[in-house]
Design goal:
The structure holds two protein chains of two kinds. Chain A is α+β, with helices and mostly antiparallel strands. Chain A is built from ten helices and 24 strands. Helix content of chain A is about 20%, strand content about 40%. Chain A starts with a helix and ends in a 5-residue tail after the last strand. Chain B is an alpha+beta fold. In chain B, strand 5 and strand 6 (about 185-195) form a beta hairpin. The chains are: A alpha+beta, B alpha+beta. Chains A and B meet through strand 1, strand 2, strand 3, helix 2 and helix 3 of A and strand 2, strand 3, helix 2, strand 6 and helix 10 of B.
Chain lengths: ~450, ~450
């Protein structure tokens, strides 16, 4: 993507004012985004993102410059702009660049650009028809298709030189159901770190049907009661609760400055013994998987909480300096426009022993949430909130009527302590996670779990 | 260089069979600096941009964009735009616009912002942090303490002779403060956006950031039930922003907005007037032309509660045999032309915030809402959101309340607005609101 002598010139220019580390990130990304609504493909966008990000460290200072100017002068100018902010005495020498290679954990059969767009349109239309024909109350279906090929080159003054090609495919189906004046929605958005084969090898009809089924089911849902209840959260995207409640608090971004509620607690019991929490970037072809992170470190499986004990954090190169701990292959960014920082990949609660039936049967009264919407956390306080897309009342160990309009709120570390059952049906769900270094693909995951008490903010009064 | 690229692109487009063509070019310069404990922590400097190509071939509009602006990108843009038209089913033809009769001038660029030396900006943000940390021992640090300037220029030109340019810039300061007392931790988000750096006062920013965070300490429980709600201006604006897409004709036509067929009807309390002002000098979405090149103008969407107009681009207007309102919008050169507001806000009254507060016998003041991207159903209008705020009694703020949720329906809320105040604000957003007093919402306390 750039020749080696230019890379060396850039890394050297970036160190010219006394920085102790320099890095270049080159990105060339091809994307397709198509939208189908009312049975017609109404928007088709294809494009190429291209740019360069240059980073310089000096001690605990980090400088970042980026540019879409790809000329030699343009890139060197960006490196000098970055260096300009550094004021040091010792000029260090660049280590000789050694090209690294690796075996991919995300094999791709069909690159998006090699697949005719009419085939992409056809799978969108199928998903649309399946959802639309599910029930007469389905009034609108929107299908979004996305594919991308992101080529990156990462090199740094420590001699690292590595390249990767990341191919991702995703489809998002939103269905709207209408009855009288009431409108409800359902959503499903599967994705993978894989080529077009993802759509052909997955059961897209199932995903489309689920989106429609949720919307139709919600037409008959009652307003969710408010208060504190036992909550059963099903697998796959249900894992968003721990993504918010503890994943973000374990990122070095929050831990390094002691802002996180989990800072300085390694080795402490932070959860019941039945909870093991893992971030694993190496799961084959999963949406949040990476071969290497955006600092060129190989992806790995990081056990964060093991049998309730806090074992580790997610650490990027810069925060590893402040923390005095090694990087964990967790430096990620949306694009060349963002300096990387510590982020999650595929994060999940490891499966336990209970069957889903046991968990429900053992719950006298509570809320069962089948699908979650998104959520948010304040890493400094640990306060989180997230929305429930499809929920049911649990009464005397049985599932009852559907409920709508529920938001769960609470404090991450406290909720973690209240997990009292962990199921055996681990599943993962794809999502986009937004934080300091932009919006990145991650998986959240878990088996079915039960939390003995969560505050539920419903639309029905007490 | 960009002119040469455009000439070549248009030439080759016409040889490839495109009849009408348009190029949109955006260029941005960014500077940002964050400090932590008196030192520079993060520093960012950037120049970037890209082009978006649109063209009509076989009667259909194709799109493609590139951030790499070189000769090799021309076939990439044209091939992709052409292929994309082959899978489009849309019968509603988009048009390349020949131009409006008159374009009102706007003043959105302040040269002084770009002239401030970088060290002066860095010193300012260091001052803010120093003042803040010295104010109270309970202030343990900042999650973010930064200053940033952005300049953006846009150019739209097409083969019908249109060539439009405008530019804007702004400077902003953001301080996220963390305070701790015993086991309780609270945070606040304080910001200032300006075109005049010398109007900013470090001590004033520090004081506001500190007060906002400290005032939330020693929070208590209150019974969960329905309360009259005073939504502070910034919280009200974030709620309005979440539902603003419902005012787009694109959404009503797609059947995903409940404002469909509501023109001329009372959709909000008589106190509510909602306008869109593309010429607001300090506005973050000010523009003299929209994403199709149509001249922008002021628009009243809701007048005394009655829905007067939706936001239209050329395509949605044609469907309803009306005129575009100049609200074609794309987030950047990477996006297709959709419909979107410029500076969109609820008009303030002349009543001060304090008067609204004094009128509440018992209620809750909401100062922050979160989970807006997930806890609000933009289609049905239902929301259940995490909230921070204070218990109100006898017209006075009593104490902060533990984390809450407030739940209701946006359309119902609009109808239940009892009073609005004079304190219009735009919380780092082009969508603004004054504080509003709502009859009641359901509150659940953790």
């Amino acid at each position: 993507m750039l020749n080696q002598s230019l890379i060396e010139d850039v890394l050297t220019a970036a160190l010219s004012t006394g920085g102790d580390f320099s890095e270049i990130f080159v990105e060339d990304r091809f994307t397709n985004n198509f939208t189908l609504q009312s049975g017609k493909i109404e928007s088709c966008l294809s494009g190429r993102d291209f740019g360069i990000g240059i980073r310089v460290f000096k001690g605990l200072q980090s400088v970042y410059a980026y540019s879409t100017d790809f000329t030699k002068e343009g890139i060197i100018k960006a490196a000098k702009n970055a260096a300009h902010a550094i004021n040091g005495k010792t000029i260090i020498q660049l280590a000789p660049l050694v090209k690294e290679s690796f075996e991919t954990i995300n094999p791709v059969q069909f690159l998006p650009k090699e697949v005719d767009k009419t085939r992409k349109a056809a799978i969108m239309k199928n998903a649309y028809d399946t959802a639309k024909n599910y029930h007469s109350s389905i009034s609108q279906v929107t299908v979004r298709y996305m594919d991308e090929e992101q080529n990156v080159l990462i090199a740094n003054s420590e001699g690292k030189l590595i390249e990767d090609k990341r191919v991702r495919s995703r489809m998002a189906i939103q269905a709207v159901a209408v009855r009288d004046n009431q409108m409800e929605t359902g959503f499903y958005g599967p994705g993978a770190h894989q080529g077009f084969e993802f759509f052909e090898n997955s059961n897209m009809d199932y995903f489309a049907t689920e989106a429609a089924r949720i919307a139709v089911t919600m037409l008959d849902a009652s307003p969710c009661p408010s208060g504190k209840f036992p909550v059963i959260i099903d697998n796959e995207f249900g894992g968003v609760i721990f993504h918010e409640a503890c994943g973000h608090g374990l990122e070095a971004t929050a831990v390094a400055k002691n802002h996180s509620v989990f800072a300085n607690r390694l080795g402490e019991m932070v959860a019941p013994e039945i909870v093991t929490y893992i971030d694993d970037g190496t799961l084959k072809n999963e949406w949040g998987s990476i071969n290497i992170d955006d600092e060129g470190e190989k992806a790995r499986k990081n056990v964060l909480i093991e049998n309730g004990i806090l074992k580790g954090y997610l650490i990027d190169k810069f925060n590893s300096r402040r923390m005095g701990m090694e990087s964990t292959g967790s430096g990620r960014r949306q694009s060349f426009r963002f300096a990387p920082t510590s982020r999650m990949t595929n994060t999940y609660i490891a499966p336990g022993k209970s069957t889903p039936e046991e968990i429900i049967t053992n719950t006298e009264y509570g809320i069962y949430t089948k699908y979650m919407g998104g959520g948010q956390v304040n890493p400094a306080t640990g306060d989180y909130n997230f929305a429930v897309m499809e929920a049911y009342e649990v009464k005397n160990g049985k599932l009852g009527k559907p409920l709508k309009g529920a938001t769960l709120i609470g404090n991450g570390p406290k909720t973690l302590q209240l997990v009292d059952m962990v199921g055996n049906n681990l599943g993962h769900g794809a999502g986009m996670c937004g934080s300091q270094s932009g919006s990145i693909p991650v998986n959240v995951g878990q088996p079915m779990i039960r939390v003995s008490e969560i505050t539920v903010g419903g639309t029905k009064g007490e | 260089m960009i002119q040469e690229f455009q000439a070549k692109l248009f030439n080759e487009a016409q040889s490839s069979g495109f009849t009408d063509v348009e190029m949109y070019y955006e260029k941005k310069e960014v500077f940002g600096c964050q400090v932590y404990k008196g030192e520079i922590d993060q520093y960012e400097i950037a120049e970037d941009g890209g082009v978006s190509f649109r063209g009509i071939i076989n009667g259909k509009m194709g799109y493609a964009y590139s951030e790499k602006i070189d000769d090799a990108s021309i076939p990439f843009l044209l091939d992709n735009a052409k292929e994309n038209t082959q899978i489009m089913h849309d019968e509603d033809i988009e048009e390349i616009f020949a131009g409006s009769n008159h374009y009102k001038q706007g003043n959105f660029f302040s040269p002084s912002i770009n002239e401030i030396p970088i060290p002066e900006k860095i010193q300012f943000i260091k001052d803010v942090e120093r003042e803040l940390l010295a104010l109270d021992p309970r202030i343990v640090g900042t999650e973010y303490c930064g200053i940033r300037t952005e300049s953006v220029s846009r150019n739209l030109s097409n083969n019908k002779g249109l060539s439009l340019t405008d530019q804007m810039n702004y400077l902003y300061v953001i301080v996220e403060t963390i305070v701790r007392e015993g086991a309780e931790t609270k945070t606040s988000f304080e910001f200032q956006v300006t075109k005049d750096f010398h109007r900013l006062n470090a001590m004033e920013i520090a004081k506001k950031a500190a007060d906002e965070a400290l005032s939330q300490l020693r929070s208590r429980n209150i019974p969960s039930k329905e309360y009259p709600i005073l939504l502070r201006n910034d919280a009200a604006a974030s709620l309005l922003a979440t539902f603003s897409s419902n005012f787009s004709a694109e959404n009503t036509q797609a059947g995903i907005s409940s404002l469909k067929d509501k023109l001329g009807m009372q959709i909000a309390s008589q106190k509510i007037t909602i306008v869109d002002d593309p010429f607001l000098e300090e506005g973050l979405a000010s523009r003299t032309f929209d994403s199709e090149g149509v001249a922008t103008k002021n628009l009243t969407l809701v007048e005394s509660g009655v829905l007067q107009s939706l936001l239209h681009n050329q395509k949605t207007a044609k469907k309803e045999q009306t005129e575009t309102t100049g609200h074609a919008h794309k987030d950047s050169y990477k996006n297709a032309v959709k419909v979107g507001p410029s500076n969109f806000y609820i008009e303030p009254s002349t009543t001060p915030f304090e008067a609204l507060l004094a009128s509440v016998d018992e209620g809750v003041l909401i100062t922050n809402l979160s989970g807006l991207h997930s806890g609000a159903n933009t289609v049905s209008g239902d929301f259940s959101l995490a909230a921070n705020g204070f218990y109100l009694k006898d017209g006075k703020v009593q104490y902060p309340v533990n984390l809450m949720t407030i739940a209701g329906n946006f359309y119902q809320l609009l109808l239940n607005v009892e009073e609005i105040s004079s304190d219009l604000t735009f919380p780092l957003s082009p969508i603004g609101s004054p504080s509003i007093l709502v009859k009641s919402l359901s509150v659940t306390v953790e």
